[in-house]
Design a protein that fits this description.
Layout (H helix, E strand, L loop, with lengths): L16 E5 L3 E10 L2 E11 L5 E2 L2 E2 L2 H13 L2 E2 L6 E6 L5 E8 L3 H12 L10 E7 L9 E10 H13 L3 E7 H9 L9 E6 L4 E7 L2 E8 L3 H12 L3 H11 L8 H29 L13 E5 L8 H9 L3 E3 L23 H11 L12
Parallel strand pairs: 1-7, 7-11, 12-15, 15-16
Antiparallel strand pairs: 1-2, 2-3, 3-6, 4-5, 8-10, 9-10, 12-13, 13-14
Helix pairs in contact: 1-3, 4-9, 5-6, 5-7, 7-8
Amino acid sequence: MRETKVFKFFNLKPEIFGIDINDLSLRIVKLKKSRKGFDLVSFNDVDIPEGIIKEGVIQDEATLARIIKKACQTVKGKKLDTRYVIIPLPEEKSFSQVIQLPRMTKEELRLAVPYEAENYIPLPIEKVYMDFQVINLEERKQNHLDLLINVMPKPVIDSYISCFKKVGLIPCIMEVESQAITRAFIKNGEQIPPTVFADFGETKTSLTIYSEGSIRFTVTVSLSSKQLTQNIAEKFKIGFAEAEKVKIQNGLENKSRNSGMLISAMEPVLNDLAEQIRKYVNFYKDHSSQEYFHSNGEIASIVLSGGGSSLKGLPEFLSGKLKIPVRAGDPFVNLSQFKNNLFPYKRGLSFATAIGSALRGADDTFLNSYQDDK
């Protein structure tokens, strides 16, 4: 029997803070469970120079380690008092798939899943770390189990582990970004109708279809908020920094004298974004008749996250194109009222992934666990 290492994406340890790392920024959030929800304990937000991370892959481990160390030492709020960290891994390097297996015990699943997963994953099983989560716990009368498998190339995970160990941190939980994002926006893990979570970030966009208590499909597309700024800079022949200010100040609203030119500069990217969302909404609808999709395939809403989603008028633009309700997510939906004048509330959507990871670190009620029938 081939021995396959299963990396524990879904394992939980106490006293854990979240660190969200992408190509150009690093965000830290630590939460503490309270009677009313979760309280913000610590946070930070620092830039990462271009080239240190590329498309989620660490290019300069030593420099990134120094940035992580400084970010941890300079957190706002309470000083970090734990070495344990949960890390959302780059969505573009992950592979997630819902599969079915006959009902069996935990131990039987651990042996069976790697063999079944080989039929789905795009890489040799010995070159990846893999974990799985049972997602239809309440459907006891079924003779099968629906499982979400997560797969990540070993070199990607090994580099993150090595980098964090360099600064004395222990990465005890690693999960894909989509898990953290959906957790941040779903209040108390409640059941919601089929929803698309669109994380419109500075360097990429991740689309996640969530249905019946689980992620069903994820994809990363090369559309970003940075492209909007670049288009504005070219259209108006101005610098990138000035173009970013113009974008933030005006968005898609028709209030300025040059609003027509501004909107036309951004429309190619935004039209492409709408088409990408439409494409995968249709994919879900076409595949909803498969046995592991139990809904009618209709997407109820689209929830936006990421720094790019704060663009004025974006929900209305996408809703008009897609004929589906679109709204910005509320990254604070699971947090209690907290008093911290330093926290950048207006950029809360940029912290969604870090908040989602910190929620998992603060409490395990968001996790599913498979209980044997015996």
